[in-house]
Every structure is written in structure tokens, then in C-alpha cells.
Amino acid sequence: MAVEIVRSTCPHDCPSACALDVERLAPDRVGRVHGGRWNPYIDGVICAKVARYAERVHNPDRLTTPLLRDGPKGSGRFKRIGWDEALDRVAEAFAAARRRHGPQTLWPYNYAGTMGLVQRDGIQRFRALLGTSLQHDTFCTSLGNAGWAAGMGAHKWGVDPREMVDSDVVVLWGLNAVHTQVQTMGWVARARKARGAKLVVVDPYRNATAEKADLHLMLRPGTDAALACAVMHVLFRDGLADRAYLAASADDPEGLEAHLRDRTPAWAARITGLSVDEIETFARLYGGTRRAYLRIGYGFTRSRNGAAAMHAVTSLPAVSGAWAHRGGGALWSMSGLFPLDTSLITAAEHRDGTQRWLDMSRIGAILTGDEPDALAGGPPVTAMLIQNTNPMVTAPDSTRVARGFAREDLFVCVHDQILTETARMADVVLPATTFLEHDDLYKAGAHTVLQVGLQVIEPLAEARCNHDVLRALMARLEAPAHVANDMSARELVDETLRLSGLPPAREIRDGGGHDCAAGFDAHHFRKGFGHADGRFRFHGAWHGAQAAVMPDLPDHLETIEAVDADHPFRLVTAPARHFLNSSFNETPTSRAMERRPTVLVHPDDAARVGLTDGAPARLGNRRGIVTLRARLIPGLAPGTVVVESLWSAGAFPEGVGINALVGADPGPPNGGAVFHDTAVWLRPVAVGDAEVPAGADAAALELA
Ligand code: SF4
Predict the structure, then answer these.
(1) CA 93–ligand 1 middle distance (angstroms)
(2) Which residues pair with 24 in a beta bridge?
(3) 474-to-3, 14, 91, 122, 131 alpha-carbon distances in Å
(4) Nearest CA owner, ligand 1 atom 4
(5) CA distance 118 to 56
(6) CB-facing half-sphere around the CA of 638: CA atoms within 13 A
(7) Could you tell me which residue ranges the 4Fe-4S Mo/W bis-MGD-type domain spans (predicted)?
(8) Best of 10, 22, 440 to mutate for ligand 1, by most ligand atoms within 8 A of CB?
(9) What is the CA(14)–ligand 1 centre distance, in A?
(10) Which protein residues touch ligand 1 with a CB less than 6 Å away?
């Protein structure tokens, strides 16, 4: 068979939602994956880990048949069973749990292993129709969403990143684009070539993106709002604020200016660890042009003060007036742009109003019952269906999560592509398709093009897609009739598009996607921000259980996990280049490229605790301890340590991942995981030391 090129879309948890050209070598085999030039933002560029996707699809560790636990929980002992038996067993266990505790004892749990709307969100229909517990999605965007909406309002989109070619300054704030949004760097390069644009990177360590910056602001983690406030102070002080724009477009510029009067660069320098000179330089650079493009990342928002920080950062282009100009303004996510009617997929209107919402980040407390409020007044969770996620590694406070999954009275079904740490804790494991083996529909965070991915190759062995598994279980559990349950995934994609007034899937795919761009005025909010009065709100519109702790006007909140004598370091679990959350940490090439779990330490800090480059080190706090290798780099704010993540739990001698150190308390105002807000201690350790726990896997410590 000649090599065919088939268009598709990357399904991973990454804003780029890359257009792909996939080499189909045979009906069941793919070769290299290339970036599609048919999406002008992607323009042929994708990351290396997806370019070698064949390694993931044809991984010998893929699950091929349903499995039934045949040993103690977590032992990894399973026996093969057929699909009918597997689905019957799951349905019987769910029905028994429901009879005993009511439907909300079932917690269907999912996240972003695929971003396809049909295969990711169909589990919402399962929850709605069966009356199970609902899920508050807090891993990724809830803190950022709250901060964005506080100032910007309901419109979650921004300026097309291709406008960077018209920018004089590009600021990447909390965004390691080289690792996580590779196309951004191409647009920065174009901006530099076209207009000599300057690149500013705001990030706590000198990562691969910061190395390319004209100005790198290496601030302490959790101090971003202080920097933003000081920059706005300078804009007002030095006549760089656009007062006409402010008068026309914001709620209370005079109140903000008065509030910022003592948020000086010297004030921010004490909080951020930056010099006054660095802050002044950045402020003059940012305010010296109206064509300053702010590309906002997720990193700095995953902190107990992350929502406040987002509000402060989004206030910058309102003060400078950059929104009004080509090449100016900001982008955090385009995800609110796409005019899709997803009611068929989610059946959200079938929720009965009494179903409780469980916070996915608090899964440890929910499963162990350690914090009764986490159960929101409902019954214990005694049965789970898990799709597209590996909470044993990705959830915070993961030692507690593991304790929860070890409960003998908890029935767990995991539907996944490989035997993840979570699947090893399951009673029944079901083999899942990859995106190349099923149909779906994709929004994007970084661009404006709606894309589809239609099946490229046959499913591996007995693997089934999420949609088919959900339908089969709902039929067995006698869920109320719903039209989506009578459709194939492909029919559901097409019907969703038809309901949304959009062309059918094949037409979208063959036509290079459907561009949902709304025009210059909309993307620059020239017709108003997303509040009823159309004005940007410096007085933040905060909602949620902890709204009272939020600052009225943009400000630094001291709510981060503070260092103390016993925990003198702040840990950031930044994204590794060759992993994507826990995805790809199973592929040999990605593991080889990342080498081994490593903590980045400033040489002065290393000398203080007696660590040398390459030496085994232990990080810990009251939640847990992990052992990894130290790498000394000067490009860190002293007192900060970074672990690029997410390695599998088995890569650490203790058998837990880095999230064992991260707290699961909900960030204000409305919940959200605080993955980059952790106080830890750091110590040297040698293999054989008494500090290494009994049973530790020394081989993992020696990982080359
Ligand atoms: S992981 Fe991100 S950058 Fe890589 S191909 Fe997928 S969408 Fe593109």
C-alpha cells in the first residue's frame, strides 16, 4: 500500500490543537506525523513527541483486551476477559452500588487525555442521564478562568497570535512555549524579523523559552501580581497609561491609580526578588508601545493566589490601551470563541439540580473520607468509571489518592490505552482507542480554527472508543433514552455540527478546518468586554465560595504556601518538553530524552544543603517525600526549585509521583489545583542511606 497522507488533529491537552498530516502506511499502521500547513497558525510546525506518535499508537504496552483483576488491588495481576463479560461486571457493580447508596455514589471521573468533544465530554451525558455525582473540573483552568472573568467578563478569547508579526513587544507570561506551545516561538521569530520585536519572558526559571528572551524576569513563584501592579504603577506615573482608552473602556481608572500609588517597583522588588531596574525596564518596554502582545500562560495561575494574579496581569493592556491596536492586547485562550451547541454530547439539560459536584482535585480526600466536606453532603463514592486521566499521578496529594484507591469497598473501572498507575488499581480495565482510531471534533486554545479528526486506522485489537463504552454501559444501566446513545461517534460529530449551523465533518476536514475568527473588533474587545456594561473591571467580579478573600482591585495576595524554617524552598512542577502531563511518559524516546526525575537547584542553595550536581536528592514536606537527582543551574531565583514533570510514579524509588508533595486545598475563589505552589525541604541522600525508605527501588534511583 502506498503511503497516504490523512488529515487529523492532535487531541492532547495542549492549546495548539495542531493540524496534522498523518502518514498511513497500512489500514492498521501509521508512520511519521507532520504538522498540517492547512492551518495557517500551525503552518507545518508540531512538537517532536507527536511527530513520533507511531511509537505511542503501536506501543507494545497498549492494552488489547478487557482485563479483570486477579490479585490484590494494585498488584498488577489481571486476567483477560471478553467485552460482554467486562461490561456486564461493571454494570452489575455500578447497579449494586446504586442500590446501596443511591446514584451519587457513582463518580464518573475524566479529564483531558483527549480534548475531542465527543470522546472527552460524553461522560457528562453519562452523569446527567444516570444522576451520578458531577465533576468540578479544577486541574487546569479554574483559577485562570476566575481571574480572567474577574476583569474581562464572560468572553474567553483574545487577539489572534498571528498578529504578533505586527507587535513591537511580545510578553510570554508564565508560558514555556518551547516545551508547551511550540508554534508561539515561530510567531515570535516572525515578529522579530518584521519589526525587531523584543521578547520578554516572565518565569521563575531560565527555561528553554527564557533563554531566547531579550528580557527574562525571573521572579519568585507566586509573585506575578506584584510585578503587574508595579508595571501599572509606572505606566500611570510616567504618562504611559492611555487615559482616553481607560475613560472609555474601564470601570474605575482613578481608583486603580490611587490604589497603585504605593505599589512601586521597590515594593514589588521586595516581593518578587527582581531588581527595581528590571521592573522599570520592563514597564518602559511594555508601555513604550501600544503594540505589546501579552501571551498569557497557565503556569502562574496554578497557585493559591493564581486567580488574583491573572486579574492583575489582564489589567495591563487595559491600562496601556494596547487592546485597541493591531499587534497589541492579550491572549490566554480562544476556547470561548467556538459557536458550538454541545447539548447532544453532554445532555446537560438532563441534570436534575440535586446532583452534587465533586472537586476532581480533592479526589484523595473524597476517596479516603479524610475531609468530610469534600463529599458535599452526599454518600461515599463506592464506584468509579475513569476515562482519559491517571489521577494516581496527575492529581495533587497523590499519596492520599493512592490510599483512597486501595479501599477494598471501592469498585473502579478504568478505560485507557495503557495500564497506567490508576488502571493497576482497577477491578476492570478496558482498552481504549487513540485519536487515530476514532472520530472527533476539536476546539483550540491557541487559534481560531475548529477542526475534526476522522478515523485514520483500524482500532488496535479489541480497543473501543469512549463513546461506545459509555453507550454500552448506559444501556446496561437502563439510562433514560437519549438520541446521542443511538448514534455512532461520527454521527454525533456531524449532528453536533449541524445543530451548530456548521458544515459536516468531512467538509471541515477536507477544507482545512472551519475558521471561527470573529474579526478585529471582537478579538480586540472594541465592542466592549464581557460584562453587562462592556467595561473592563479593575474592581474584580469574583464568584465562588472563597470570593471574600479576593482583592477588590488588582493586588498581590499573600495566600501562597509560605516557606518556613522546616520548608525553606518553593517547588514548581513545570512541564517537561517530552511529556504532556502524564501522557508520553510511557514512550521510550520521551523517557530517554528526559533522562530521569531531576530537581533543578541554584548552586548557592545546593551548597547550603550540601548537594552536588548529579547527586541523589530528596524533596519533601508533610505530605510526602520523593527521591530524584539534583541538577545545579544558575538560572533560578534562589529559594526556588523546579521539577519538570510528570514522570510516572515508578520512576521514583518511593513509587509515588511528584504530586505527592502538592496540596489539594481548593485555590480561591472557586477551587483549582495549586500545582506550582508548594513549600518543601531539600536534602542530599545516597543510595543505602537510612533515609531511603524500606523497599525503595534502588534501580529507579539509578535510572540513567
Ligand atoms: S501536543 Fe501540542 S504542540 Fe504537540 S502536536 Fe499536540 S497540539 Fe501540537
Answers:
(1) 38
(2) 4, 30
(3) 39, 30, 8, 11, 12
(4) 47
(5) 22
(6) 8
(7) 3-61
(8) 10
(9) 6
(10) 10, 12, 14, 16-18, 46-47, 50, 182, 580
Mean pLDDT of 227-238: 98
Mean pLDDT of all residues in the chain?
96
Looking at the predicted structure, is the pLDDT value of residue 643 above 80?
yes
Question: Domains in the chain, ordered, with CATH?
Answer: 67-139+341-441+459-502 (3.40.50.740), 143-332 (3.40.228.10), 569-703 (2.40.40.20)
Please choose from 7, 9, 12, 180 the residue to mutate so as to test ligand 1's pocket, defined by most ligand atoms within 8 A of CB. 12
Long-range contacts of the stretch 261-270 (C-beta < 8 A, 24+): 261/233, 263/226, 263/229, 263/230, 263/232, 263/233, 263/555, 264/230, 264/233, 265/230, 265/233, 265/234, 267/226, 267/230, 268/223, 268/226, 268/227, 268/229, 268/230, 268/556, 269/230
Indicate whether 688 pLDDT > 70: no
Q: Are 17 and 25 in contact (CB under 8 A)?
A: no
User: What pLDDT shows up at residue 696?
Assistant: 45
Q: How do residues 451-476 score in pLDDT, each as one tens digit?
A: 999 999 999 999 999 999 999 999 99
Its pTM stands at: 0.96
Atom of ligand 1 nearest to the CA of 20: 5
Distance 458 CA to ligand 1 centre (A): 22
Rounded alpha-carbon distances, angstroms, from residue 253 to 256, 318, 536, 541:
5, 9, 10, 16
Residue 580 Cα to ligand 1 midpoint, Å, equals 9
Determine the residue of 8, 18, 180, 209 to mutate for testing ligand 1's pocket, defined as the one with the most ligand atoms within 8 A of the Cβ atom: 18
Using a pLDDT cut of 90, give the percent of the chain over it.
97
Q: Give residue 1's pLDDT.
A: 76
Which atom of ligand 1 is found nearest the CA of 33? 5
Q: Is the pLDDT of residue 124 over 70?
A: yes
Give the model's pLDDT for residue 701: 47
The confidence score (pLDDT) of residue 695 equals: 44
